[in-house]
Amino acid sequence: AASAPTVTVEAPAPEFKPTIPVAPDPVCAEWGPIADSYAAKLKEWSAKSVDQPASTWNAEQRELNKAFISTVRDQVSDLNRLADKAQDPFLAGLLRAQAMYAEAYILRLPNYEPSDRPLWQAAYDFSGAVRAACTTVQPR
């Protein structure tokens, strides 16, 4: 006997309506110290980062960027883990967006060109958006 054909029906995507929360998402309590820790770990890179092609880096710059890649890989992992735990879908999306842009940047860093810089700027800006989402609540 032949089996019945499989029929796939696409459901409409759920409507997404971001709102200003009345209280910070519980994941924010974990995110804050983690974000501060990564900022401290990346402080030297931020201070010495130059916007020149990787082909012109000296040995110190190569080592600094190698350490940066390792640190940001860990950060991406933490961001995705926190996004999975976030109750607010908007916050989860911001965390995933920051992780996505940071990952894209570190993948380009070994062959860095100045045109790659906007990827890091986007990751940095999403970090600011996450901070705002974690510290801003609906006025009473």
Structure description:
With 140 residues, the chain is mainly α. It contains five helices and no strands. It has helices spanning 27-41, 43-48, 59-85, 89-108, 117-135. α3 (59-85) packs antiparallel against α4 (89-108) and α4 packs antiparallel against α5 (117-135). The longest helix has 27 residues, at 59-85. The mean pLDDT is 91.
- Structural class from helices and strands? mainly alpha
Morphology:
extended
Amount of beta strand: under 5%
Per DSSP, the total helix count is 5
Reading the helices and strands in chain order gives HHHHH
Give the overall pLDDT as a whole number: 91
Helix content: 55-70%
Low-confidence stretches: none
Instruction: Let me know the largest β-sheet.
Output: none
Give the CA-CA distance, first to last residue.
65 Å
- Provide the gyration radius in Å: 20 Å
* Count of strand segments: 0
List the helices and strands and how they pair.
Elements: H1 27-41, H2 43-48, H3 59-85, H4 89-108, H5 117-135
